[in-house]
Amino acid sequence: MTAALLTDFILMADSKPLPCADGDPVAMEALLREVFSIVVDEAVLKGTSASEKVCEWKEPEELKQLLDLELRGQGERREQLLERCRAVIRYSVKTGHPRFFNQLFSGLDPHALAGRIITESLNTSQYTYEIAPVFVLMEEEVLSKLRALVGWTSGDGVFCPGGSISNMYALNLARYHRYPECKQRGLRALPPLALFASEECHYSIKKGAAFLGLGTDSVRVVKADERGKMVPEDLERQIRLAEAEGAVPFLVSATSGTTVLGAFDPLEAIADVCQRHALWLHVDAAWGGSMLLSQTHKHLLDGISRADSVTWNPHKLLGAGLQCSALLLRDTSNLLKRCHGSQASYLFQQDKFYDVALDTGDKVVQCGRHVDCLKLWLMWKAQGGQGLELRVDRAFALARYLLEEVKKREGFELVMEPEFLNVCFWFVPPSLRGQQRSPDYSQRLAQVAPALKERMVKEGSMMIGYQPHGARVNFFRVVVANPALTRADVDFLLDELERLGRDL
Predict the structure, then answer these.
(1) Which of 74, 139, 170, 338 pairs with 6 at a CA distance of 20 to 30 A?
(2) CA 504, CA 481: separation in Å to the nearest integer?
(3) β-strands 100-101, 463-469: how paired?
(4) What is the pLDDT of residue 23?
(5) CA-based angle 438:442:448, to the nearest 5?
């Protein structure tokens, strides 16, 4: 480096900050106070008000122009940045809105939001005690509580970036548990493997098999009954068939709360099969795990304590905010660390001045890891277990109310009686009522849900998901999960479908 270049660097380091909040605490405070004010007014208060729109739909090209997405060389003034914040909120879908029924997550818990704000402000990584002492201890306390609800007095676990990744972790751990040499030698150390999941399982099981190099053909699809539950007898048959074909079974993934129908697999019977064949039992309870908080409804997960691993997403029914997904393990042999650890010496020094067992980062495949425990911990502190139980029970009560209203109204036809919070039905417009024997009835009925979805989204009045399912043509799946939901919102949903669909 030349003397002139060194002088330039010194002068730059000593220069005044650029014309933005950098290095100016007064400007930084003013900006953040104004941004927080916009967030509270626009995203929180308006975004959760039934009198406001769920969304303000714009076509992609128009939205690009409205947002002015181009990144330029010159920075912008604070006033312009604040307008950009308002625009981002204005044109985003308000998932906290009581008439947002589109996904398995909805609502906005203020305590969880407070935890998320603190988490983002502290901007740390959940890998060592030295830089995340509060959150290392907090994560273990939260995971311990979740494990206790599963029925385990000990074990392990980690928060993962979503339920799909939690499920993939389970696959990887089960494979390593069976064949630990695969960590070093890879797929060449393995015979052909087989894992088993029902035809109603989450698509992350097949994605996980592909990602881990097992291939989607390694996933043996087990039949589900008419209510979407895995058939244990077919699981037994599929295991024996895989063995006869030369594959080695190693894992069964059961589901507690399937994505579309909300079905709960019979865990006791599935655990019996796994026990007979010495197979790892994973339970994907991403959606249904929160039933464990309810004395009234936790029977839906009877047998879950016999699992080896469990996925549970508190960001769904509990409303902890995206993302909050726990992988829970019954294992006490440090399997997570043995499977994933690489002993990076610049992070996980063994001669630190504190107990290095507190450095949990080597348990995971990530290096930097987002803190996901605070929002759930703070919400739990505010609500208590009793408050969260009430939240679950109230959602069930509103789902039952919706079910009874659907049964009473002309033009609404249930797909099946729900056992969970997924209420699935067809809306049959006046022009199709009484036409069930017509040869094109199914084809025309399949077009109703997409047409109504377009109308509701473009008006911004509500959002409901729809899908085909097996031989069933498109139907609506209403997810009753938002803790702010009322009977009036349920009535509005049905009234709005009638209004939007009367001329179809």
Answers:
(1) 74
(2) 29
(3) parallel
(4) 72
(5) 115
- CA 350/CA 337 separation, integer angstroms: 15
Please state, in angstroms and rounded to a whole number, the distance separating the CA atoms of residues 111 and 381.
9
H or E segment and range at residue 221:
strand 219-222
What's the CA gap between 262 and 256, in Å, rounded? Answer: 8
252 vs 268: CA distance, rounded Å: 13
475 to each of 242, 315, 417, 432, how far by Cα in Å? 35, 25, 14, 15
pLDDT of 1: 61
Closest alpha carbon to 294 in 377, 380, 395, 145: 395
Which of these, 463, 466, 489, 486, lies nearest to 476 by C-alpha position?
A: 466
Q: Is 131 helix (H, G, I), strand (E, B) or coil?
A: coil
What is the per-residue pLDDT across 216-271, written as a single tens digit (0 to 9) for each? Answer: 999 999 999 999 999 999 999 999 999 999 999 999 999 999 999 999 999 999 99
CB distance 414 to 424 below 8 Å: yes
463-469 and 412-414 as β-strands: parallel, antiparallel, unpaired?
unpaired
pLDDT score recorded for residue 4 = 67
Q: Which residues neighbour 366 within 8 Å (Cβ) at sequence distance 6 or greater? A: 161
Report residue 101: phi and psi, to 5°. Answer: -115, 15
Q: Are 235 and 196 in contact (CB under 8 A)?
A: yes
CA 163/CA 201 separation, integer angstroms: 12
Letter string b/e over residues 431-454, b meaning 16 or more CB atoms within 10 A of that residue's CB:
ebeeeeeeeeeeebbbebbeebbe
87 with 67: CB under 8 angstroms?
yes
* Phi, psi at 250, each rounded to 5°: -140, -15
Which of 120, 479, 78 shows the shortest CA–CA distance to 288?
Answer: 479
Q: How far apart are CA 209 and CA 219, in angstroms?
A: 7
DSSP H/E element including 312: strand 309-312
Mean pLDDT of 135-143: 98
The C-alpha atoms of residue 140 and residue 119 are separated, in whole angstroms, by: 17
Cα separation, 499 vs 461, whole angstroms = 11
Give the Å distances, CA to CA, from 458 to 51, 55, 143, 368, 500. Answer: 16, 8, 41, 39, 11
* Contacts of 60 by beta carbon, 8 Å cutoff, 6+ apart: none
In this structure, is the dihedral angle defined by the CA atoms of residues 378, 165, 173 and 367, taken in order, positive or negative? negative
Of 401, 396, 402, 422, the C-alpha closest to 478 is: 422
Please give the helix or strand (H or E) that residue 281 lies within, else none.
strand 280-284
CB 206 within 8 A of CB 195: no
